[in-house]
Amino acid sequence: QVQLVESGGGLVQAGDSLRLSCAASGRTISSYAMGWFRQAPGKEREFVAYINRSGSITSYTDSVKGRFTISRDNVKNTVYLQMNSLKPEDTANYYCARTLGGSWSLPENYSYWGQGTQVTVSS
What is the pLDDT of residues 94-111, one digit of tens each? Predict the structure, then answer.
């Protein structure tokens, strides 16, 4: 079983940057595609970014394209989310998870969710 631990969140101002990390333990994640999701209070969990096993394929929700970058280091068993030009609407708890297959934008196609890291962007 794999455990995922997110870190790197915090309180920043609009326009700032943050780098989130998702560290895996228990089992390697190098054989799995990974995703980042976010959830704001009162809202459903939303797909943010996806990366395949090798890192050669990535996908983003439209609202973060050009601002966020997902990457991975399979040696370190870690997935990253670089977030630039942050906006107040990016405020949410950010989660990483391992894919089960199927559409990579659907949370039900992921397992082994971390506990999340809070990102708060002030205007």
Answer: 999 999 888 899 999 998
